[in-house]
């Protein structure tokens, strides 16, 4: 196959800003403006024009090996959506890419659900892509415009699924793994952590033990009021040196003194971070809480776009506590990989650590997250405890071994044995 010509491969790289300069910009109230301009200056790879010759949607219900429990509910199966798009070059070559939209079943986490994702894909994004299929696409910016991603508010999962198909196809067209469309640096593996979602002490400890036995690079446990200090103390007693962090999924309240005392009590356990203790649309109260804790706060649900990330960076920097901020970047939670790349680059510029959380994706979304994780700095949520996420997945997930997961080096996502592409 003839390779598509890339006109400009990757963007002007961000230069890290020296700490003294960050403090200075923050004091003058100019850090937000500076980072906004920096994010706007990022330019994606641009290439010879392509158009779209076909799009269809595959929907699969996948049973989980380990039902997932969070502070908002328990689920045993998930519906995953796979937009499959065929692109055409000017000389008539066709290449197909796939993405994944991974909502939770009910609007617990971010207001999205499988029903809403189905409607957004079938009634808005796919018809719009069909209507504009002959428009020339020369970068992700064109694709986001023609597909309606730019015009649709929220509905992040669906937008990420559609965008994923573009990146997979572009990687195949230019003969590069997707992660090397975002950075020129070759990498072979990323550190893999696990997320333990169980509110039963014995079960949670059993899952942590299984994960530790596989050499996992770090463990995250879900907490909620009344199931926090006791859980962490029990884990620390057995594993004093384990890289450990907690995720509260918005279950705490800054104005409840018992909640704040419990979070403060977690400071003694040398945790990497406390993730999303407060409301899922809040950044300001998280910043206030962060002033009362030594453990860094990680924002997850609160970050839906690069603007939110910049806002948080500016607040923490003004208070001189930027070393207590971490951001979990999930491409599906921010509406796609391009927005996720921008967030990662802005965080990198100011030294805020990042990692890639999971939405319990199938092999497709998981593989895409592995590519994205090359731009982050801490271990991501990439593996379950002992068993794969799904009883029957749609393809093969990149290999996990001793705390790391391999990055595919084949063009596109480098997916293996993906059965949905044939349908
Ligand atoms: Mg989280």
> Segments where pLDDT lies below 50 for 5+ residues?
none
Q: How many discrete domains?
A: 2
Distance between the terminal alpha carbons, to the nearest Å? 23 Å
Rg measurement, Å: 21 Å
CATH topology tier name of the largest domain: TIM Barrel
**Order of helix and strand elements from N to C terminus:** EHHEEEEHHHHEHEHEHEHEHEHEHEEE
CATH superfamily of the largest domain: Enolase-like C-terminal domain
Q: Helix/strand-derived class?
A: alpha/beta
Describe the protein.
With 423 residues, this protein is of the alpha/beta class. It folds into two domains: 46-179, Enolase-like, domain 1 (2-Layer Sandwich), CATH 3.30.390; 185-422, Enolase-like C-terminal domain (TIM Barrel, Alpha-Beta Barrel). 34% of the residues lie in helices and 20% in strands. The chain is built from 13 helices and 15 strands. It has helices at residues 19-27, 31-40, 114-131, 140-147, 156-174, 179-182, 201-213, 229-238, 257-265, 284-290, 306-318, 337-350, 363-373, and strands spanning 6-8, 46-47, 50-70, 73-89, 94-98, 189-196, 219-222, 244-247, 274-275, 297-299, 325-328, 354-355, 380-383, 400-401, 404-406. The strands form three sheets. Strands 6, 7, 8, 9, 10, 11, 12, 13, 14 and 15 form a ten-stranded mixed β-sheet that branches. It has a three-stranded antiparallel β-sheet with strand order 3-4-5. A two-stranded antiparallel ribbon has the order 1-2. Strand 9, helix 10 and strand 10 form a beta-alpha-beta unit. Helix 1 (19-27) packs across helix 11 and helix 4 (140-147) crosses helix 5 (156-174). The longest helix is centred in the middle third of the chain and has 19 residues, at 156-174. The model has no long low-confidence stretch (mean pLDDT 94). Residues 247, 249, 275-276, 300, 328, 357 line the site of magnesium ion (MG).
């Amino acid at each position: 196959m003839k390779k598509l010509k890339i006109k400009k491969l990757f963007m002007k790289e961000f230069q890290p800003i020296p700490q003294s300069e960050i403090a200075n910009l923050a004091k003058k109230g100019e850090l937000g403006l500076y980072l906004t301009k920096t994010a706007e200056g990022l330019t994606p790879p641009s290439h010879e024009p392509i158009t779209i010759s076909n799009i269809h949607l595959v929907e699969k219900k996948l049973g989980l090996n380990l039902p997932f429990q969070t502070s908002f509910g328990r689920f045993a199966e998930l519906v995953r959506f796979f937009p499959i798009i065929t692109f055409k070059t000017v000389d008539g070559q066709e290449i197909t890419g796939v993405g994944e939209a991974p909502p939770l079943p009910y609007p617990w986490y971010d207001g999205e659900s499988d029903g809403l994702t189905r409607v957004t894909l079938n009634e808005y994004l796919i018809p719009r892509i069909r209507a504009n299929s002959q428009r020339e696409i020369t970068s992700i910016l064109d694709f986001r415009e023609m597909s309606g991603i730019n015009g649709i508010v929220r509905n992040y999962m669906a937008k990420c699924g559609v965008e994923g198909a573009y990146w997979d196809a572009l990687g195949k067209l230019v003969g590069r793994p997707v992660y090397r469309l975002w950075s020129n640096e070759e990498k072979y593996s990323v550190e893999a952590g696990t997320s333990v979602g169980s509110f039963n002490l014995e079960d949670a400890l059993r899952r942590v033990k299984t994960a530790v036995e596989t050499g996992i690079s770090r463990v995250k446990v879900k907490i909620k009021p009344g199931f926090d200090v006791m859980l962490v103390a029990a884990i620390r007693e057995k594993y004093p040196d384990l890289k450990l962090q907690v995720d509260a999924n918005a279950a705490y309240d800054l104005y409840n003194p018992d909640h704040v005392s419990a979070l403060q009590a977690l400071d003694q356990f040398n945790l990497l971070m406390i993730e999303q203790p407060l409301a899922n649309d809040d950044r300001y109260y998280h910043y206030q809480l962060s002033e009362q804790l030594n453990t860094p706060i990680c924002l997850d649900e609160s970050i839906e776009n690069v603007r939110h990330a910049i806002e948080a960076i500016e607040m923490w920097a003004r208070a001189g506590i930027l070393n207590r901020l971490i951001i979990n970047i999930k491409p599906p939670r921010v509406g796609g990989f391009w927005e996720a790349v921008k967030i990662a680059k802005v965080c990198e510029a100011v030294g805020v650590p990042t990692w890639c959380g999971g939405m319990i994706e199938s092999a497709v979304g998981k593989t895409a997250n592995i590519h994205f994780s090359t731009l982050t700095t801490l271990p991501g949520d990439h593996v379950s405890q002992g068993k794969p996420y799904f009883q029957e997945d749609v393809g093969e997930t990149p290999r996990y071994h001793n705390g790391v997961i391999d990055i595919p080096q084949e063009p596109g996502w480098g997916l293996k044995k993906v059965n949905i592409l044939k349908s």
